[in-house]
Amino acid sequence: MELTSTYWNNCYAEGSTGWDLKEVSPPIKAYLDQLENKDLKILIPGGGYSHEAQYCWEEGFKNVYVVDFSQLALENLKQRVPDFPSSQLIQEDFFKFDGQFDVIIEQTFFCALQPDLRPAYVAHMRTLFKPKGKLVGLLFNFPLTEKGPPYGGSVAEYENLFSKHFDIQKMETSYNSVAARADKELFVKMVKKQTN
Fold first, then answer.
1. Is the full-model pTM beyond 0.70?
2. Is position 10 within any domain?
């Protein structure tokens, strides 16, 4: 199955959005709540309905961007938050997207990608950061199978994938996940490695 923009638009049109929590994910909310610099440039890739972007915006982070394959998902966010700038809602393939960000929030995007795209995700992700940029969010912690999305993974796999380009500061079972995801999510915080 090819996970194209048509596939994702159909999911939203049919209401097949089981991954959507209908609220900001508690671990990500807790992270955002401790940030003091409201001028940070934040990206949420594969953001979908992006309750995280809505929360950022409402909390005063006005430099937040969402990139998603699905125009329907972005339109949903715009309807919920009419003053969210359309120029910061970008319908594009993540792998073709370009920009420089202080923080990138990972929330159910990585797990939605076909597993063979994971090395490309990591390689492209590192190009999107300002110096000392942080990748923060959640990765699923259950066995990787061909059945998905969502696709799972393990600490060992993630460390192997990310450690070449990122200093992994935190990768641990999330203590404050929603009940349906308890013990199935890893909270991660990684900093882009500096190149010489």
1. yes
2. no
